[in-house]
Amino acid sequence: MRLVLLGPPGSGKGTQATRLKEKLGIAHISTGDLLRAEVAAGSELGKQAKAVMDAGNLVSDDILLGMLRSRLSQPDVAKGFILDGYPRNVAQAEALDGVLADIGQPLDAVVQLDVDADQLIERLAGRAKEQGRADDSPDAVRQRLQVYTQQTAPVVDFYAERGTLARLDGIGELEEVEARIHAVLPKAG
Ligand code: ADP
């Protein structure tokens, strides 16, 4: 199963991807986690990315594509993967098509978690208290939501036009949302 999980910041992509990874035995590729690992390691890439991330903006497409290519070349990906946080703009969606065509592993599904803005702001404020992520500050959250509307929402249309998109209500208990995702995934085999 090769899956893209789309949704605004705070929509629960990361949480659901972790659960899907366990259930389906596939790799979870979170570009946010990959970037945070670079920042934590103090690499050159991490240094470049940190200020951009903290402000709630998108790190450059080139950096992301390099990271993605390298992650997709690792052996665990052969069993399938969930992409969480990529693509975040239409150029990335087009780049992803190219990379997946190169490795002969096209997507099976694209799932969008819909959550309204009020709910997102509430969830992110809660997470800011619990985890203290620099980009969960009120200014950064506002910017991330704006970036989502301007740059990532068109990705939803990109996949909708191809008929590969399933949109779900992302509000409810974790188990309920998870069941909704499983219900729209193509059956294995
Ligand atoms: P969230 O979905 O809650 O915004 P993520 O962990 O997915 O959080 O991403 C955190 C930050 O990492 C983003 O705000 C952005 O700065 C950077 N980032 C993650 N994925 C991408 C991407 N595909 N393109 C550009 N920047 C990205």
Q: Which ligands does the model contain, each kind named once?
A: adenosine-5'-diphosphate
Strand count, sense and barrel status of the largest sheet are: 5 strands, parallel
CATH architectural type: 3-Layer(aba) Sandwich
Mean pLDDT over all positions: 94
The level-1 CATH class: Alpha Beta
Structural class: alpha/beta
Structure description:
- The protein is of the alpha/beta class.
- The protein has a single domain (2-182), classed as Rossmann fold (3-Layer(aba) Sandwich), CATH 3.40.50.
- Helices cover 58% and strands 13% of the residues.
- The protein has helices at residues 13-24, 31-41, 44-54, 61-72, 90-102, 117-131, 138-162, 174-184, and strands at residues 2-6, 27-30, 81-84, 109-114, 165-169.
- The chain has a five-stranded parallel β-sheet.
- α4 runs parallel beside α5 (90-102).
- The longest helix has 25 residues, at 138-162.
- It is globular and about 40 Å long.
- The protein binds adenosine-5'-diphosphate.
- Adenosine-5'-diphosphate binds next to α2 and α3.
- Residues 30-59 are annotated as: NMP.
- This is Adenylate kinase.
- Its main location: cytoplasm.
- InterPro entries: Adenyl_kin_sub, Adenylat/UMP-CMP_kin, Adenylat_kinase_CS, P-loop_NTPase.
- It is found in: Cytoplasm.
Short synopsis of the structure:
The protein has 189 residues and is an alpha/beta fold.
SSE topology sketch:
Layout: E1 2-6, H1 13-24, E2 27-30, H2 31-41, H3 44-54, H4 61-72, E3 81-84, H5 90-102, E4 109-114, H6 117-131, H7 138-162, E5 165-169, H8 174-184
Parallel strand pairs: 1-3, 1-4, 2-3, 4-5
